[in-house]
Amino acid sequence: MNYDEFTDKVIDHFMCPRNVGSMINPDGVGRFGEPGCGDSLDIYIKVKDNVIEEISFLVFGCVAAVATSSMTTVLAKGKTLEEALKITNHDIADALDGLPENKLHCSVLGANALKNAIDDYYRRTSQVSE
Known about the structure:
This protein is of the alpha+beta class. 42% of the residues lie in helices and 19% in strands. It has one domain: Sufe protein. Chain: A (Alpha-Beta Complex). Strands 1-2-3 form a three-stranded antiparallel beta sheet. It is globular, with a radius of gyration of 14 Å. It holds the Pfam family NifU_N. This is Nitrogen fixation protein NifU. InterPro entries: NIF_FeS_clus_asmbl_NifU_N.
């Protein structure tokens, strides 16, 4: 595999992903993508006092998909739900010191799965996202 197109941070998050794994009794689960036809990501969150206290992920995808999923969890952990909802795919790519243009779509997995997990939390707790 040729890693020359990736930054050191991308390689680091691919080789040593943070917060990887499923979660028992999550407060919210978000999925984005389709495992049958490409990259897919599941994000699990536990929330306390409106703050993402725990977050983890399972991903099916390439180097960039793993790295962006890992970075998404790093960026969201400890944030309020409102702050986490503001994390964009560009924030994720920037935190990794950039992605090749043909891999930028992988950062969309993280941003959208995170939003879906927060929306799921709001549904489960009968709240409305702001």
